[in-house]
Amino acid sequence: MKQLQQYLKQIDGKSYKAYKQIQGTYSFERYDLMIDYVQGDPFAAPSKIRIRVPDRERKIRREWIGEARRRFYAEDTITRAVAKTIHKTQTSVKGSGKSGMVAIDQPGQEILERTAVSLRDQEMIICLTVGLPANGRRINGKQAEKLFFSIIPEILKQSVFSIKDHEIESACRLADQHQAILNEMKKNDWISFIADESILPRESGVSQRPMKGSVPFQSPEENRVSIEIPHREEPLSGMALKRGIVLIVGGGYHGKSTLLNAIERGVYPHIVGDGREYVLTNPSAVKVRAEDGRQVSTVDISPFIKNLPHGTDTTAFSTENASGSTSQAANVIEALEAGASSLLIDEDTSATNFMIRDERMQELVVKEKEPITPFIDKIKQMRDELGVSTILVMGGSGDYFNVADDVIMMDQYSPYNVTEKAKHIAGKYPNDRIASSEETFGRVPKRSFAPQSLQTRKGKKEKVQAKGMKKILMGREDIALDYVEQLVDASQTRLIADLLLHLDKKGVLKQGDSLKVLLDKIEDQFDREGLASFAPFRDQHPGELARPRRFEIAAALNRIRTAKVKDIR
Question: Is the full-model pTM beyond 0.85?
Answer without folding.
Answer: yes
